[in-house]
Amino acid sequence: MSVLHRVRAFAGQLALLAVLGALAAFLVSGPVRLANGRTDDGLRGDIGKLPAASRDLTYSGIRMIGEPNRATGATQLEPIRRGLPAPLPGLVSDGWYIAETELSSIRPAGIEPGQCPDLVRVRWQTGADRAVELVGGRAPRSRATPELMIGRDAAAALGIKVGDRVSLGSPQGTAEAAVVGVFAPLDAANPIWADQELAPSACPDPREGQRSEAVLLTDQGGAVAIGARLENLGDRWRFRLDERRITADRVRDLTKAVAGARRRPPERTSLQSSLDTTLARFDEQVLAVRALLAVVQAGILATAAGLVLLAARLMADRRRAEFALVRARGGAVRTVAGRTLRETLIVVPIAVAAGWLAGTQLPGRPADGEPLLVLAVALLAVLAAPGYAALVARHPSFSGHRSDVASLRPGPRRLTAEAFLVLLAAGGIALLRRRGLDAGAGVDPYLITVPVLLALAASVVALRLVPFPLRWAGNLAARARGAIAFLGLSGAGRAPLHSGPLAVLVVAIATGLFTGTVTSTVGAARDHAAELAIPGDATVTGYRFAADTAQRIAALPHVTRASSMLLYQGARVRGDTTPLLTQTLAMVVDAATAGLDLPAALTGARPGGAAVPAIVSPRLAAQLAGGGFVEVQGREYRFTVAQVRSAVPGLGTEARDFMVLPQQAMPIPDFQPILPNRILVAGDGFDPDRVRQTADDGQRAQLASLTGSPQKDGKLAVPAVVTTRSDYRASLEKRGVNGALSFTFAAGMIAAAALSLTAVALAVLTGAPARGRTLSRLRTMGLSARQGRRLLVFEILPLIGVAVLAGGLAGFALPALIGPALGLGGFTSGVAAGTTLDPWFAGGVLAVAALAVLAALAVENVANRRLRLGTVLRLGEEQS
């Protein structure tokens, strides 16, 4: 028989092997690309959110006192860019030279400066003339008098129009200039405008209200003339990095490059950027995500490889009689292996290549080791079947015995190998906890397989322990009425849990439950972080609200409660027996009505006591002798330490030194009330915009009480911001690499569930011929089709039950065992990550087990039809 004829004859077995090989190749390339793409998107999003002063590389010129500035640095722009450390030059999308004054006062010419004038910077910037559209007047052409051009929004805010003459002032001098044009950006999203935004700011004296800060454009001559008179003209060379060209695998090189640019700047310049800090922080998250992805991928690929081996074993077992006939005719073992190899070479490599190509079509960045992994998958899929065929050909037999029946008394070699596997898993966990998955030189291949080794060790232990309760259950079933349970349990006992399918199933379930446990753990920690940051349903933040702002918000529809809170940074604390200790963060809140999780000492505190009870952070409490004095908004209050806590709702997760005081018990005079900068809102369905507007009205009312004049409805220096807990919780999912993390978890659980069902199906197919002969004989004795299905259930349930138990325990224990190496704290906003399992995930495992039973019944039904069980005894057919 030719090779093609054999391929056609055994098309079903080869197709199964090819499909599993293609699936393994797809899992090597596709999901990893998607995860890497999510990681890159997170990095670009983090960089894109940074202000221009942080994300751009900006060199500031250093000049000696009295040295004139001629604004001639434009010619140095390109040489400085080329001199940046690699790979920065190739990532620069645009660059500008800027000659700019420091913040200077601006007022109409001839008018004496007020106490709180508006502030401006006068700038000449390369490329600005091509990025503007004149809406009035003309472009500057400075000669004897410097000429300026102002943005449309800034002109409205400062009250300036074309033709006005203005006076600019600095501590060193004044300069007169003429406003000759008003412009609007051609593209407001152009990064050239990123550091030229019109911004409101508070006056030094709050009673004077607020002012605006703006940037005015001029030409080179105007910048030189104004800078000479104000004596504060500086040079800057600003380079914008294109985040679209940045990928997470280059983060470490970029961090080093930015640090190198900081250490070795061009002569007489200094670098201003915090991009390297952002990149270093992101790199820590990338390492943690890469470690988690490696663990999940190792589990999924190990399961897929196990399925390939099971399919190869199934193919060899089904052709046992054929191989025995070849050997009986004088064929050697290598002959059997060679003919099987030729068959797989025709089908399997094409399928593996197709699976790999399908994975490459998904968006994202490939992993560095993808070609090697695909090659390993191809070799395994091609050589597995010939290898099993060679093993079968060594001991040919026409008996058609069940190849899945294992000895209840394993030999010394097998026991030694199993003990070594258990020790290897235990040693790997100990090593993993000590050094982590990634010590800076990349993920260790041995350490990422530790979870797989633990799952395999759990399957080995289960394989050795479970036959004893199975015997006991079989003995009980033998005494009961009916033979179905006894026959099914006896079948399971003769084939002690199908060691191959059991190992694959345990690895799949352990991987799925591991991802589920980590998902629950991270989710619970993020929920706690959201509770700490946003203790109510929403928090309103601002600069300073009027004392009755909370009552105004509480009167809004669907708001059930609104409480004032003050976070006072820099509160001075001194103990009873010690001098001034430190400045700390003081939180003042009405503990009785705010609804926070606070002790009874604070919620039940009432005015009139000698000292106010307070919650104090551990480090601050160690410096106090049980009490002292704290200064809040210029007034000193006596306190006593009622409780020591490391975290309090409302302070977030980053506060280290803090104190919480109950406002309702503090002796606050009417003439010096505590003015809040936070409002805690409770309710369901309220309008955040109305809450924000009411809060801003409260801020304007407070400013009006200070200045003695009504405030306009314009922009506030610090507008109120309403943050709901649900929005804050959702934002935790979108930060940094959390998109890749969520995808990894979802993909791991879905893949584990699908591969678990496949493992059960292969376990059923492995024993289908022998069960078919048994069923054929039992049907002649009156066994119905329904009873036949029950027989399969009793035989397959121990496999599924033991796999769920062993895999579940291994998957749930993994985060606790290797948690320190996973670095989950980087994804939980600083909240300590314990081990949490959502009941829904546990229910999902049981649902997968139920689906596995149904899948087993369906596969058995199809197999019985193909084996034609009704003709076995009548025609004397020997099924194989």
TrEMBL record:
It comes from the Bacteria. The chain crosses the membrane at residues 291-312, 344-360, 372-394, 415-433, 445-466, 502-525, 743-770, 791-819, 839-859. Keywords: Membrane, Transmembrane, Transmembrane helix. This is ABC transporter permease. It comes from Actinoplanes oblitus.
